[in-house]
Amino acid sequence: MKPKFKDKYRVESIRLPNRDYAANGSYFVTICTRDRTCFFGDVIDGKVDLSEIGQIAQLYWAEIPDHFEHTYIDVYAIMPNHVHGIVVIDKPHNVETRHGASGDGASGDGASLHQPQAQIDQSNKFASLKRGSLQAIINAYKSSVTRWCRKNGQEHFGWQSRFYDHIIRADGSLDRIREYIINNPSKWEDDKNNPANLWM
Predict the structure, then answer these.
(1) Total number of domains in the chain
(2) Domain for residue 27, yes or no?
(3) 87 within 8 A of 63, measured Cβ to Cβ
(4) At 134, is the pLDDT very low, low, confident or very high (cuts 50, 70, 90)?
(5) What is the CATH number of the domain that holds 72?
């Protein structure tokens, strides 16, 4: 039975309990919008036609390496209601990983990619994120897109609270995942995240 918090069943973390998510590695990430609403656009003839929010989601994803040292992005796709992407953390072996609450994205542990240090929302500071960790990167990305939406009359936008990740092993799976991401738009009609398929 799942543990309870305030008489409600608590969903266990989907992160691996003994995995250091600030450690070097390649991570296949999927981030969904709230209720899988198609905020980012639509697929037309096998290609994604991005909305204004979708364009911002794409721009901010491409800018992740500008805000997190030793972090790179590989293949990615902005789909109508989710983002697929490969995030690569590749720190030199002499860089020590430190713990700390979310801070400025430029320092490698940001709560936002586009927010000055003094304006950072500390509402989740109890959930201290490891500097430069995958969680810190994705949280900063999600916060930045959300903040843009709030400032630009898109208050209805929202993310699913969690994201999904898969640690890419050195077993040839990288190429298969890249192919999956690249081909995702052309397979949208069969995608489990397509709202039309949610009740199938």
Answers:
(1) 1
(2) yes
(3) no
(4) very high
(5) 3.30.70.1290
